[in-house]
Amino acid sequence: MKNDATSAKTMFRSDAIQRVMAFGALIVLAVGFSMASPYFRTFDNLVGILLATAVNGVLALGVTFVIITGGIDLSVGTVMTFSAVMTGVLITNWHLPIPIGILGGILAGSTAGLVNGLMISRMKIPPFIATLGMLYATKGLSLVISELKPIYFNDTPAFREMAMGSIFGKIIPGFNIPNAVLVLFGAAIIASLILSRTILGRYTYALGSNEEATRLSGVNVASWKTAVYTLCGFFAGLAGVLISARLNSAQPALGAGYELDAIAAVVIGGTSLSGGEGSILGTVIGAFVISILTNGLRILSVPQEWQMVVTGGIVVMAVYLDILRRRRK
């Protein structure tokens, strides 16, 4: 019992150190870019950073659960696009009420996650291959359903207002923080409660720590793993609704590369690619690190190809630090 307590305490310290390091990197980046360019610290630019983080952050929330189990989901970017297209079809093409369109988009993402989970847990297809197949499938479906054309929400301005409007702006004049940012923090709170206070959260950690021991203890591993991937699809669907509202359109060709940013945010936030460790707070911090880094480099007119090089280097460094932490434990 004492050894278990010591192990848990060591793991807590390890996770906490990684989160502190990520938060420290966030502060350094923010201060550094603020000193390098006065445009970085303008209110409009800060709002832009928050909006970019809202989409990537919501995507990363679902990916956090998957990576804690020791899995991977390469399809969240195109599942997000598929959900956005389905939302556009329901609201614009079929003229259904906005709430039904939103629910339909989230349901589309959840269904894709469910299929991922069934392929991985029941058919025993490796997560990399299963989600790669879903990446191509949802990308193709998005193009087919939309007939290769963007779907615009010009006839339903209330849909865009739900995400881009500002409840804060009505309460505090001039403080126009978009509602999409509130959705991010609300989703993060819910995800944190699921991960820390529910059976699904406990089994998520258990699957990543030792899946075979979890199975031998009588847990239905296949069902809980399917639930994790379905939850990841749910967050991808929510991100699809947010990005379509932000752009006021569903872009069927959008989505490629978003999965990499989401995975990068999760890894930078301290979630171990080996499974068994991670937190929602760390993921949110990691998402802000990615957004601030991308935004700051763009303001400094750094070419996009070099932005990708810098981001890739940070991800590799984060993974290496995770390896060092595990060796020390």
What does this protein structure show overall?
Helix 2 packs across helix 9. The chain is globular, with a radius of gyration of 20 Å. The chain has 14 helices and 2 strands, in the order H-H-H-H-H-E-H-H-H-H-H-H-E-H-H-H. The protein has helices spanning 2-36, 43-68, 76-93, 98-121, 127-145, 157-164, 167-171, 179-197, 199-209, 211-216, 221-247, 258-268, 280-299, 304-328, and strands at residues 151-152, 249-250. The chain is mostly helical and 329 residues long.
Radius of gyration equals 20 Å
Strand content: under 5%
Low-confidence stretches: 1-13
Q: Write down the overall geometry.
A: globular
H-E string: HHHHHEHHHHHHEHHH
User: Numbering strands along the chain, what is their spatial order in the largest sheet?
Assistant: 1-2
Q: SS-based structural class?
A: mainly alpha
The CA-CA distance between the termini, in Å, is: 18 Å
